[in-house]
């Protein structure tokens, strides 16, 4: 049982780490000489422009920013609630609250990645600083967001099924 508990904790911490990296790092859309994320677009690795109201797709970007931050907060909150429930729940009870919050995290990261998948062409239209942004590809932060979605979904279901046993 101790090995299962260690696996669950490591799995949850890995999910949170993936969410942090996907939210913070500059690699949602990458190409030759440029990279973008949810917060800024960088060209020549030194010329970075913050994404603000000047961008035509700013409401979509704000939705992605908010849902990725919420996903990270929910994932961390679910971990702390799991630790509290681990010591407070009676034997045989399920981790329903932890599961619910982890599934909320899953939903938030799915919404953010889905919006980005749907709108990435509008987000990166045109040429900036003599770079053809359309020639880029999805970066590893985008891929980590989808992996984090899968991990949070699996752990949310795992917490729902898991019962506290001796």
TrEMBL record:
Membrane topology classification: Multi-pass membrane protein
Keywords assigned by UniProt, alphabetized: Cell membrane, Cytoplasm, Golgi apparatus, Membrane, Nucleus, Signal, Transmembrane, Transmembrane helix
Stretches that traverse the bilayer: 63-83, 95-117, 137-162
Keyword Hydrolase: no
Top-level taxon: Eukaryota
Predominant localisation class: membrane
Protein localization: Apical cell membrane; Cytoplasm, Perinuclear region; Golgi apparatus membrane; Membrane raft
Position of the signal peptide: 1-16
Any GO molecular function: protein kinase binding
BP-aspect Gene Ontology terms: cell adhesion; positive regulation of integrin-mediated signaling pathway; regulation of cell-matrix adhesion
GO CC terms in record: apical plasma membrane; Golgi membrane; membrane raft; nucleus; perinuclear region of cytoplasm
Subunit structure: Interacts with PTK2; regulates PTK2 activation and localization. Interacts with ITGB3; regulates the levels of the heterodimer ITGA5-ITGB3 integrin surface expression. Interacts with P2RX7 (via C-terminus). Interacts with ITGB1; the interaction may be direct or indirect and ITGB1 has a heterodimer form.
Family membership: Belongs to the PMP-22/EMP/MP20 family.
Protein name: Epithelial membrane protein 2
Native source species: Eublepharis macularius
Gene: EMP2
